[in-house]
Amino acid sequence: MNHWGVRVRVNSWSNAAEAHVHMGKAEDFTMKAYGTRVSATTVMDGTRLTLTPDGEITGQWPPQ
């Protein structure tokens, strides 16, 4: 995938993080983790993303 990126903002005072995910022309979405981790799955290729309140974001591609 060309032209992808993630911008993460963390608020340590309220134990929260917000991630804006950009995947080329196909997808743009925002994840918000307030006190607990959140997960999302991309529509385009099925990548599973997880965001924690401390701003750590991880991804896992689906098994082929």
Q: Could you explain the architecture of this structure?
A:
This protein has 64 residues and is mainly β. The protein is built from no helices and 6 strands. Strands 1-2-3 form a 3-stranded antiparallel beta sheet, with no helix packed on it. The protein has a 3-stranded antiparallel beta sheet with strand order 4-5-6, with no helix packed on it. The chain is globular, with a radius of gyration of 12 Å.
Give a topology summary.
Blueprint: E1 4-11, E2 16-23, E3 27-34, E4 38-41, E5 48-51, E6 57-60
Antiparallel strand pairs: 1-2, 2-3, 4-5, 5-6
Quick structural overview:
This protein has strands at 4-11, 16-23, 27-34, 38-41, 48-51, 57-60. It has 64 residues and is an all-beta fold.
Number of helices: 0
Distance between the termini: 17 Å
Strand ordering within the main sheet: 1-2-3
The largest pleated sheet is described as: 3 strands, antiparallel
What's the count of strands? 6
User: Which H/E pattern describes the elements?
Assistant: EEEEEE
> Portion of residues in helices?
under 10%
* Structural shape: globular
**Beta-strand percentage range:** over 45%
Radius of gyration: 12 Å
Descriptive labels:
single chain; 64 residues; mainly beta; three-stranded antiparallel beta sheet; 0% helix
